[in-house]
Amino acid sequence: MNTHSGKNEVDGYISLQPEYSRQILNSIREIIYGVAPEANELISYGIPTFNINNKHLIHYAGYKNHIGIYPGPTTIEFFRDKLTKYETSKGTIKFPLDKPIPYELIKSITEYNLNKLK
């Protein structure tokens, strides 16, 4: 895993989440690292963020009833057909905690954003 100093901040953020959210957030974190092992992680806008070359790759966060990912508006538009089951807004996708988390979709979204940054 990346040893960037932001890792400790992200560890702290995740440790403050309820157990069920910690497991999901750690799984999302591992998926993003698998797609972009060169990314640096940090806290930006108060939530875990992965950056590549000082540009945001993706943000993610835990909430009481959902997990949010923040891939940006153009990415959400690109994946619009695959997101119909989820609440979205301009730059946000909400995955409810009472339904299975679509990890493969999160992986695809991260890959798409990585390709946009190259």
Descriptive terms for the model:
alpha+beta; 25% strand
Structural class, by secondary structure, is alpha+beta
- Given as residue ranges, the uncertain stretches (5+ residues, pLDDT < 50) are none
| Biggest sheet overview | 6 strands, antiparallel
Strand order of the largest sheet: 1-2-3-4-6-5
Rg, nearest Å = 13 Å
For the terminal residues, how far apart are their CA atoms? 21 Å
Strand content: 25-35%
Q: Judging from the principal axes of the Cα atoms, what is the shape? A: globular
Q: How many strands in all?
A: 6
Number of helices: 4
What is the helix/strand order?
HHEEEEHEEH
Describe this structure as you would to a colleague.
25% of the residues are buried. The longest helix has 17 residues, at 19-35. Helices cover 41% and strands 25% of the residues. With 118 residues, it is an alpha+beta fold. It has a 6-stranded antiparallel sheet with strand order 1-2-3-4-6-5. The radius of gyration is 13 Å and the shape is globular. Helix 2 (19-35) packs across helix 4.
